[in-house]
Amino acid sequence: xxxxxxxxxxxxxxxDNGAPITSGGxxxxxxxxxxxxxxxxxxxxxxxxxxxxxxxxxxxxLLLQMLIQVIxxxxxxxxxxxxxxxxxxxxVYAQNMASQPTIxxxxxxxxxxxxxxxxxxxxxxxxxxxxxxxxTELVLDLDSTYFETFGHQEKIGFNYHYLNIGYHPLIMxxxxxxxxxxxxxxxxxxxxxxxxxxxxxxxxxxxxxxxHQTIILRGDSGFAAPDLMxxxxxxxxxxxxxLKRMALDRRYVxxxxxxxxxxxLTTDEFEYQAASWDKARRIIVLNDEHGGTQxxxxxxxxxxxxxxxxxxxxxxxxxxxxxxxxxFAFGKTDSSSFFANKARMCISVIASNxxxxxxxxxxxxxxxxxxxxxFRDRLLKIGGRVTKHARKVILTLDSRIQEQFxxxxxxxxxxxxxxxx
Length: 421
Fold this sequence. Notes:
It is built from 15 helices and 17 strands. It has helices spanning 27-34, 37-44, 59-72, 79-83, 87-92, 100-109, 112-133, 196-207, 226-234, 304-312, 316-327, 338-362, 372-380, 399-404, 408-417, and strands at residues 3-6, 9-15, 21-22, 137-144, 147-148, 157-159, 164-167, 170-174, 179-184, 214-219, 238-243, 259-261, 265-272, 281-288, 293-298, 384-388, 393-397.
């Protein structure tokens, strides 16, 4: 044992003979959730191909470890080497943590069938969230985003919108639950709408629920493709999609019949059939106070002002993407393999949706919109001390957390504990 006096205050002594201390005492809540019968069944049904000889860790165990690391906020795989020595992780999760090389090999050994299994796992998680929400309406936002890459990586390309080299994935979310419904990794030089129809068709063929009586899809001008609109109409799905600025004659716009919305926007509408369309469709015109004009194509029969409000809420997808990138390492592309980066992207999405499910169970309604960083700060990143006794181990948490957040931890504990009943 080493003990030394503090030079600035001799009455204070510093010793290195203390009990093991953790900064993640709240991870016990995450362990309760992941090991509960409800969530365990999800992973028990995951079948990953494994032709390794005498592996120390099953692939599903490695998947769980990666999810734990992402959820706790660790972006780099080499944190696994630290976690193998962390007593709190070994006790809380009741398993040994694999090393960084093992985690990296796990990603490189995944197959196309394994990716399909990850996507099916994501669908099952979303189904649980939908059941809890009981929403009869599904509002899908379709968008693309950008992943920066470094060095020589497969299928990278220059994107003229972002003026950089990287990947250009598609993403579809549901604003009502905050869930990520589907993702697809693409080369960086892919146009926004490339593959969007097939992407949406894949979702419609595998993931629609009878629970959702009304489905609305929203997209920006990159998705204004006739085949996508025809697909949506053929599946009785409503849409609001912005069109690129059209060189329309002023006779299309009735300037004497403009409605004021929120004091800023004026609207009008007309029927329009582009050369590539099979029929005329309803166009909503938005004219702002600065002279700008936007056009929205829709098959909704709502009044103009309501369609404008529906479309403008599409910006919610940006918050979800921001939370994914800032909190779940979405966009981390540190492998030269396109496939490994795709697998990592899927794991980030699963981690995000797992936390949506956990928040729906553990938190009050007004806390459901918390970002993952807020969730970590208030429930997971709690200082604690581990002490061993004759027959048990006690994790003692910082009492100030309870005082600061008004019993939030134990309320979450009781709700998660109910999953075990």
